[in-house]
Amino acid sequence: MPVRFLDGGESCLVVELGDAIDIGVNRQVRALDLALEQVRVKGVLEAVPTYRSLAIYYDPLVISRDVLKQKVGLLYGSLGSQAEARPKVVEIPTVYGGDYGPDLEFVARYNGLSREAVVHLHSKPIYHVYMLGFTAGFPYLGDLPEQLTVPRLSTPRLKVPAGSVGIGGRQTGIYSIESPGGWRIIGRTSFRLFDPFSHTPTRLVPGDTVRFVPIAPHEYAGGQLGRL
């Protein structure tokens, strides 16, 4: 799919690089985001990567949409010669089931699996962080094994604890703060994803990779953290 430039308002240019959730497209989005950060185009205020596009916020009094579009187009055309940075791998210690994962039983029953099989299938892959969204630091992770696909809750919960590990469709993710939510909760981690007082508030960034590590409840109570 050729690159598309869309208006996201009077001061936002959306650069669309694909039309599906695809790790190759997402890596292009990440590469463009990093390249734009390195060249420091005057007038660009912020860039926000998503699954398949990059939203670029700019000051229209400093740079026009047409000039920005031209610069981004040239930058995108030069990406083929750039080496991709090696992603950071983060291990997320997770207690599955029980009070920590009240929907584990449903996920197992819905897919005709045992609870142990759900834990094994969920913790086996190395997941790609496609994007952050919904709440600060919430990572959208893929790709979830097809055997674990489940519908979201018909009525979202009003409160989902921070650290809850959920499944929604073909995605999995981690609630970074306590919030409402409609994903099926299968576990919880004590790994802190968001700290507003830190110099780097989010522990994960798009392009990182994640592996869930099953642990016992007493290890969670002990405050075990993920290893970077």
UniProtKB/TrEMBL annotation:
Per its UniProt record, what NCBIfam families does this chain match?
5-oxoprolinase subunit PxpB
Domain Carboxyltransferase: residue ranges: 3-204
Q: Which domain of life is it from?
A: Bacteria
| This protein's UniProt keywords | ATP-binding, Hydrolase, Nucleotide-binding
SMART domains (UniProt xref): AHS1
Q: Which InterPro entries match?
A: CT_C_D, Cyclophilin-like_dom_sf, PxpB
Question: Which Pfam families does the UniProt entry name for this protein?
Answer: CT_C_D (PF02682)
- The name under which this protein is listed is Allophanate hydrolase
User: Could you confirm whether the keyword ATP-binding appears in this record?
Assistant: yes
A single Gene Ontology MF term assigned here is: ATP binding
